[in-house]
Amino acid sequence: SFCRNPHPEDRYPSCIVQWQFSPVAKYRACGALQLWNYYASSATFNDTFVAGIAGAGYVYLDSLGPHMHAYAHRAGVAMATSDVGVVDTGVAMAKWPATSREAVDTYVRTARNNSGTPQDFPSAVLNACGTAWGQPINTWLEDGTPVFNSVCHGPKGADPSNGHYLYYYRGSLNATDAARDFATRILWVHDTYYLPTPNQPLFLYAFGGLGLYGGHDDFFLFLQQALAILEEEHPDTFVAIGANDMARLGRLANPNNVP
Prior knowledge:
The protein has 7 helices and 6 strands. By secondary structure, it is α/β, with parallel strands linked by helices. Helix 3 packs across helix 4 and helix 5 crosses helix 6. The chain is globular. The relative contact order is 0.14.
């Protein structure tokens, strides 16, 4: 309902958006629970959900210290109860780097080590700026759980984003033609990181928000135009998918073939 084509006569495709939402909303009284019920019941094929690691904001796993295990236990139950399996492990900042692979692995194993948590929650992990800290753009934990690292730095000498390259907010996009700028960035990431391997696609994800999207006057039209540019100039190269499909296809693409 949020991202269908508002102008059926146009050539712009529909797009799929992963909405980040607090998995603990079901435990909250009144407003938060009603809001979750509304979004969950009105979601269409184009609306999928990602668990925000801190619920309403960010938590940096490296900063939790001895509290991380208790937090991961609660997060695992919340994700399973809300049926939201893909989780965002926060974003890098000056004080805290991107979440390490070891911390992600501990978080996932701890979240699942609970009698109230099915073994497929979390089903996949989004790790902001992992590529800037030496992690592959797509990687897998030993048990086959896919970890998708975002790209925060673009080409040297030609990146005005200040650490927010594959993002569509914070004013880093060209306001004159934000969709073209965003499509160009997606293509650069593809050309830089993609290694042609049979049955192993490159999974990319970009952060953004409804209020700040490169100066464009319509969030959904902006995304649709960017997808249309990519399809027209690079047909059959890029496909927009939702959170659950990203987790499922990511596990299938594991080169180690862990079932």
